[in-house]
Design brief:
The complex is a heterotrimer. Chain A is built from 17 helices and four strands. Chain A is an all-alpha fold. In chain A, the strands form two sheets. Chain A has a two-stranded antiparallel sheet. A two-stranded antiparallel ribbon of chain A has the order 2-3. Chain A starts with 9 loop residues before the first helix and ends in a 22-residue tail after the last helix. Chain B contains ten helices and ten strands. In chain B, α3 packs parallel to α6. A two-stranded antiparallel ribbon of chain C has the order 1-2. In chain C, α1 crosses α9, α5 runs antiparallel to α8 and α10 packs across α11. Classes of the chains: A mainly alpha, B alpha/beta, C mainly alpha. At the A-C interface, α6, α12 and α16 of A face α4, α9 and α11 of C. Bound molecules: adenosine-5'-triphosphate (ATP) and magnesium ion. Magnesium ion (MG) binds next to α1 of chain B.
């Protein structure tokens, strides 16, 4: 295990506390940069979605994880970003302009949502954000002159400085990766500045934050605006990746998926948002795999254990029937959410920390290190 | 003119007069204690000063400025910091970030500068950090710097709350029962710190306290309160001998 | 005028269903501060059980109804025991997510078992109508209203006249204090979940003749029941029913008098407006944390 000797206040401010970080993140970045030349086009496509989902995950983390304001309406912010881009594209506005415009419009709407949200806490806020998202969905479906209603809108191929960037090109992937990395760096910067600390203060005790001079209302609105802006940016990329957008793509289901991203990753860390995004995006290929290959493999295993060919065939068709059941994805989502909340509240990243600590301290690791503290029923009714 | 002044302050919850026409003044550099039985309205006075509650009537002045209508976050900006009776720390953050939030009133950087972490932000952060380190040293909090609050014992939390208030470099500090829940040793430490705060840091102290020995050791003056009304005001000895105060404590 | 009364009655009927779901939210919330996002799905499941008993096994309507209610009461206890109790006292958001997960799970499993077609339960009063002059009111709608009133009366009696009900009220006021007073808080919470699942089942069975049962019905109606519960203040049992009726009427009026599209969003617009003006809902109390 490594001991850090701090000799300067700078040591606590640095993004990378020691050289090990620089090496491992450098390596990761290098791998991500050569990915397009190694991975199949299908996996590359999934990787782009990972970048987009992770960006939204970080945005949600700022609002929900750090400021403590729950939102089940982020699909609506994504939609506003996507539609702003698609609409401005019709008038041949160049990419950098509509990219920024999408972020700005979403940010403004985010701030507007933030204002009524100021007086709401807990469950009321969750319900208000759901309502907001449902209303946005309906507006998108009805405002046909702008959004083309339920017909949806085509999104033209991205063109950057006169070069067309197809949605499955490496350049598009790099663009998404850059947006993600910049978002993460910006968020880390925020977290080591007064604003980020004010967010955390509001999350943990509004009363104390106020008494320390934090203008709680202002910072909540800021948090909403920042989170929405980032989601708006992600929305532009999302629209380009799909090349077609329609209202039913931005439902409550999607908002819940975003929450799952941070819940599964770990609601307290940026690593978590990325891990959660990988998880959510990869669940589809995983289910496809389950459907296509798993039954054969299971039957093979059964055969090696001495099952007759007839039984093995039976098992195979049963497994196939199970894997292609309609609601399987929903059921898996449901089970995963419940299991994570019950058993791994710190998410995948928390699990990783535990494993790391286990090896660092081996054989002295104590389970109790990460044990949840006993909490007795504490009312959140009067905050 | 007095440094800090409350005039005819009242706070009613429905029919209950939690604070009832209370007037008092705090002189610059003194330690003034408020005592009184449970439910006398002591914490309510603090909550009025830090604008958690809006007074039913009455006015509050600080440095000759009427602060009755100031928004709550501005109170800290004026230089009034406080601690809470039941400890209101930022549970899921480290001690260091808790203390740095105390520096919030001195932060001047803009959001966009922070997003880019410009050199000005970095320089500011170092200044904040230096001040925080001074407070950490003053209150002997070195071992806890990087610990999460949620894992710390009660006594330490109490000190951290005091530290957070001091980090804002207040002119006036409001301490709500600083010794409650502390053992004898910790209470001794607390009494030294309170006196040092006055003599070394030049902070004016307004304090609510039940522990009479602590009150006697540190206070310049004492106010006794019951049912939201002032019973007596004066030196610690005078107030404790006052017949109304004796009666209030004996429950007669 | 006639149209108005027709709309009013169907609005009230629909609103009663919302109200019953909202009632489930409120019961559980009052007892444990848990907001059960799977409440609508409990209703859906109750509907499917009733369908199984009545439509598939051919039981008498009332016996099937009672069977579904009993089954779901047990299921509610099970859900509480498995999903909610282990995390009671953790941040509200975690608990909300757990119940969202539960909802997903129930929806998918129901879809797997009962398929994705719309199902219908034959009821003794499916067909009939009540004629008053030129006013025509369907019995199935009236039955929802009547049943809601009966249920509310029963619940009121239960909470105010029985020991268990009093214990529940006590533990919903202050769980720790109730525990110290010797009230078996865990059992109380268990019973609260049973009741709320049973109430949800009633809503599901009553709803069956009006809209069909399918695996997503709980999600759709559950989302409408939120505005109802919030309007009612999220802590008040009569408030929930009044809120539900309000939302039902607003929805049905908006569907009739306003341009297309308003029907679905009107409840949410009203909800946001109310929250803006009165963040605690119409009947909610404003309580502040004491420091
Ligand atoms: N938010 C509130 N709503 C209603 N009554 C309140 C509220 N806050 C305080 N009170 C009441 O006001 C009175 C004074 O309360 P306060 O907390 O100021 O007492 P205190 O002197 O600090 O007592 P203690 O020594 O127990 O801390 C009490 O009767 C209390 O119940
Ligand atoms: Mg007090």
């Amino acid at each position: 295990m490594r001991f850090l000797f701090k000799t300067d206040y700078e040591d606590d401010i640095k993004l990378f506390p020691h050289s090990g970080y620089i090496i491992s993140y450098g390596l990761l970045l290098a791998l991500l940069l050569i990915a397009p030349y190694v991975l199949s086009s299908y996996l590359m496509s999934q990787l782009v979605f990972v970048c987009i989902y992770a960006t939204v995950g970080v945005a949600l983390l700022i609002l929900t994880g750090f400021t403590g304001q729950a939102s089940l309406g982020h699909a609506a912010f994504l939609a506003i970003g996507a539609y702003t881009a698609a609409y401005l594209q019709k008038y041949n506005v160049p990419f950098p302009v509509y990219f920024l415009a999408a972020g700005a419009s979403t940010g403004i709407i985010g701030a507007m949502v933030g204002f009524p949200a100021l007086r709401l806490t807990g469950i009321y806020l969750v319900i208000a954000t759901i309502s907001f998202a449902l209303i946005v969905e309906e507006i998108l479906a009805r405002w046909e002159s702008v959004t083309n209603g339920n017909e949806g809108m085509r999104v033209k191929t991205l063109s950057l400085l006169g070069v067309t960037v197809p949605r499955d090109s490496p350049t598009f992937y790099y663009l998404c990766l850059a947006v993600l990395v910049l978002t993460i760096v910006g968020t880390l910067n925020l977290l080591r500045s007064p604003t980020g600390r004010a967010f955390v203060a509001i999350r943990d005790s509004e009363t104390a934050a106020r008494s320390m001079g934090v203008n709680v209302a202002l910072y909540k609105v800021k948090s909403f605006a920042i989170s929405a802006t980032i989601t708006g940016f992600a929305g532009v990329l999302f629209a380009h990746k799909l090349s077609f957008i329609s209202p039913e793509m931005f439902t409550l289901q999607l908002s819940i998926e975003f929450i799952i991203v941070i819940l599964i990753g770990g609601t307290f860390s940026l690593h978590g948002a990325v891990l959660g995004a990988i998880f959510i995006v990869m669940i589809d290929p995983f289910l496809t795999y389950l459907k296509d290959d798993m039954p054969g493999i299971i039957a093979g295993i059964a055969a090696t254990f001495g099952a007759s060919p007839a039984t093995a065939g039976n098992i195979q068709s049963n497994a196939a029937a199970f894997a292609s059941l309609n609601g399987l994805k929903g059921a898996i989502y449901g089970i995963i959410i419940v299991l994570f909340v019950l058993f791994e509240p710190l998410g995948l990243y928390g699990r990783w920390l535990k494993i790391k600590l286990f090896f660092q301290l081996f054989p002295l690791y104590k389970r109790a290190t990460f044990k949840r503290q006993k909490i007795y029923v504490k009312s959140e009714r009067n905050r | 003119m007095s440094y800090f002044r409350a005039e005819n302050l009242s706070l009613h919850f429905g029919g209950l007069k939690a604070v009832d026409a209370v007037s008092f003044a705090v002189e610059k550099g003194e330690i003034l204690s408020i005592i009184g039985p449970n439910g006398a309205g002591k914490s309510s006075i603090f909550n009025l000063i830090s604008r958690i509650y809006r007074p039913t009537s009455g006015r509050i002045f600080f440095e000759d400025q009427d602060i009755t209508e100031q928004p709550p976050y501005d109170i800290a900006k004026l230089g009034i910091a406080r601690t809470f009776q039941n400890i209101e720390l930022f549970e899921n953050a480290t001690v260091l970030s808790n203390l740095l939030v105390g520096r919030h009133r001195h932060s001047t950087t803009q959001l966009w500068q922070e997003l880019l972490f410009l050199p000005s932000v970095r320089a500011n952060e170092k200044v904040h950090r230096r001040r925080v380190e001074q407070v950490i040293e003053f209150l002997d909090l070195e071992p806890y710097r990087d610990k999460l609050i949620s894992g710390l014992p009660y006594g330490v939390r109490k000190v951290i709350e005091l530290a957070r208030a001091l980090c804002s470099e207040p002119k006036l500090i409001l301490l709500d029962e600083p010794s409650s829940g502390l053992n004898v040793e910790e209470t001794d430490d607390m009494s030294f710190w309170i006196r040092d705060m006055k003599s070394e840091l030049g902070v004016t102290v307004l304090m609510v306290e039940h522990d009479m020995s602590l009150v006697n050791r540190v206070s310049d003056r004492v106010i006794a309160l019951n049912y939201g009304r002032v019973l007596a005001m004066g030196s610690p000895a005078e107030v404790q001998e006052h017949p109304d105060v004796v009666a209030a404590y004996l429950g007669a | 005028m006639l149209d108005f009364v027709q709309q009013l009655v169907s609005g009230v009927a629909l609103g009663c269903v919302y109200g019953l779901i909202a009632l489930g939210f409120v019961l559980v919330y009052k007892a444990t501060e848990v907001v059960n996002f799977a409440q609508g799905d409990l209703m859906m499941l109750g509907g499917f059980f009733a369908f199984t008993f009545i439509g598939m096994m051919g039981l008498n309507y009332w016996i099937g109804f009672a069977g579904a209610v009993a089954t779901m009461a047990l299921f509610g206890m099970l859900a509480e025991r498995v999903v909610v109790r282990p995390i009671l006292g953790y941040p509200q958001f975690s608990i909300i997510m757990a119940t969202i997960g539960l909802g997903y799970f129930l929806r998918s499993v129901a879809g797997m078992i009962w398929g994705t077609d719309d199902l219908k339960i034959e009821t003794p009063f499916s067909q009939g109508v009540l004629r008053m002059g030129s006013l025509v009111l369907a019995y199935d709608k009236l039955s929802v209203i009547a049943a809601t009133m009966i249920l509310c009366a029963l619940l009121w009696l239960f909470f105010n006249k029985t020991m268990l009900g009093t214990a529940m009220r006590a533990s919903s006021e202050n769980m720790l204090a109730a525990y110290y007073m010797g009230i078996p808080v865990k059992r109380v919470v268990s019973v609260v979940w049973a009741i709320s699942a049973a109430v949800a089942t009633c809503a599901g069975v009553l709803l069956a003749p009006i809209t069909f049962i399918h695996s997503n019905v709980g999600l759709v109606l559950g989302l409408k029941a939120f505005p109802a519960a919030v309007l009612g203040g999220f802590g008040s049992i009569p408030g929930a029913v009044v809120g539900g009726v309000l939302i039902g009427v607003i929805e049905s009026m908006a569907g009739f008098y306003l341009p297309e599209g308003w029907k679905d969003v009107a409840p949410y617009v009203v909800l946001l407006t109310v929250l803006l003006l009165k963040p605690e809902g119409l009947f909610g109390l404003h309580v502040r944390k004491k420091v």
